[in-house]
Amino acid sequence: MHLTFLLLPLFVFWTEYNVHGSANGGRDLALVGLVLLCVAAHEAGHMLVAWRAGLVSKAVILLPLSGVTVYEESRTQPGPSSIEAWRRDVLIALIGPLVNIGLAALSVAVIYATGYGANLWKWPFFQSGNLPRSLVWTNIYLAGINLLPAYPLDGGRVLRAYFALSSDASVATRRAVSISHALAMLLMVAGLFSDTWLTMVGVIIFCAAQLEERAVIFQSVLDNVRLEEVMLTDFATLSPADTLQDALEKAVHSLQDDFPVVRGSDMVGVISRQRILDALRAEGNGYVQAVMNKLFEVSLREESLGTAFRKLTARNSSIIPVVEDQRLVGIVTLQNLMHSMALLAESRKLKRE
Ligand SMILES: [Zn+2]
Q1: CA of 239 to the centre of ligand 1 (A)
Q2: Distance, CA 90 to ligand 1 centroid (Å)?
Q3: CA 239 → CA 79, 185, 321, distances in Å?
Q4: Which of helix, strand or coil describes residue 298?
Q5: Which of 5, 128, 216, 293 could anchor a disulfide with 31, C-beta 3.0 to 4.6 Å?
Q6: Short-list 13, 38, 8, CA closest to 23
Q7: For residues 227 and 210, is the Cβ–Cβ distance under 8 A?
């Protein structure tokens, strides 16, 4: 759940208080719960269709209006995307509002069938005093707002998919995000002069666009950056014949947390500063050979950062030696990765300018 969801109860309390001078805490919370459920159903629709199209979602961040889905595998292919990708993205996007329209129709049917007098057309449509009416209108609002061409709302996703037909994924995202930012600004300003809810919609769209853009940039860095661009080429190594005391001594003089262990020109293991310390504490002085990790993955310098990340997490290790013709030419560690990625992004930006 995104932090902006905390705004929603505040807003509900505040508007209720404005309407009749008092707020009913329990009913107001129930209203917030209804919104949460409707957003969750909307997102479940996206996930289901995405899953049927072969995209496994790893996480969904719920915002009061919509959600941001993080997929297991990259959705960003370099170059313009195909007609199939466009069809798939449009279908995944449109299912969300369709779920809400379906829910609205269903609740109207239930309200009429039970003969409950919900006064569907009475203003304000969205009010904790009348939860059935609020349920209907919440879904209509969710469907309507999500169809706005404000990325990453669903209408904006269709727009982005359209841009992606003629440009590559990150360019398409950037164009959609700038349109979205403009629209969010407009809503925020319009809300100041009319309904405060509009301002809130603007703020949420702004946050969502920011979240989504960051995720897309991160993914494209993972796919497009090769290890040779970020690996450490100036690093310390240990020898299997080093004593743990010697190794600790070397570790003190290095910024590294993880060390490759090298015999002659062969990589024979990896060891972390923590492992050296633990072994020294537990068993006293010994040799690196005895405590180093002999099971490790190596990568080639032209492999992508994404591949390296997967290898790191699969082995639950924090260092990947980079080899060329069996020779150690660099290392990539989790510790250095974040740092070098920020630097790399900066240097690419400077080059573009
Ligand atoms: Zn949606």
Answers
A1: 55
A2: 11
A3: 46, 59, 15
A4: coil
A5: 128
A6: 13
A7: no
Q: Residue 160 C-alpha to ligand 1 middle, in angstroms?
A: 14
* One-letter amino acid of 305: L
DSSP annotation of 5: G
Q: How far is the CA of 39 from the centre of ligand 1 (A)?
A: 8
Rounded distance from Cα 150 to ligand 1 centre (Å): 11
Q: Is the pLDDT of residue 73 over 60?
A: no
Report whether 63 contacts 208 (CB < 8 A).
yes
DSSP β-ladder status, 266-272 and 299-300: unpaired
User: pTM of the predicted model, to two decimals?
Assistant: 0.64
Integer CA distances (angstroms), 20 to 17, 28, 229, 241, in order: 6, 13, 62, 79
Model confidence at 165, in pLDDT bands (50, 70, 90)?
confident
Ligand 1 centroid – CA 47 distance (Å):
10
pLDDT in tens, 297-337: 888 988 888 888 778 777 777 788 898 887 888 988 877 77
What is the distance in A from the centroid of ligand 1 to the CA of 262? Answer: 52
Measured in Å, residue 70 CA sits from the centre of ligand 1 at: 13
- Determine the distance separating the centroid of ligand 1 and the alpha carbon of 67, expressed in angstroms: 6
Beta-strand runs (E) in the chain: 57-62, 67-71, 258-263, 266-272, 299-300, 319-324, 327-333
The answer to whether residue 24 scores a pLDDT higher than 50 is yes
| Whether the predicted pLDDT of 74 surpasses 60 | no
Cα–ligand 1 centroid distance for 244 (angstroms): 55
* Alpha carbon of 6 to ligand 1 centroid (Å): 20
Q: CA-CA distance, 142 to 130, in Å (whole number)?
A: 18
Contact 204, 4 (CB under 8 A): yes
Query: Which of 219, 3, 18 lies closest to 127, judged by CA?
Result: 18
Structure token digits, residue 313:
């997490």
Q: What is the whole-number distance in angstroms between the Cα of residue 43 and the centre of ligand 1?
A: 6
> For residue range 130-163, what is the model confidence (pLDDT) as tens digits?
777 888 888 998 899 899 998 888 999 899 889 9
How far is the centre of ligand 1, averaged over its atoms, from the C-alpha of 111 (Å)? 26
Distance (angstroms) between ligand 1 centre and the Cα of 46 equals 7
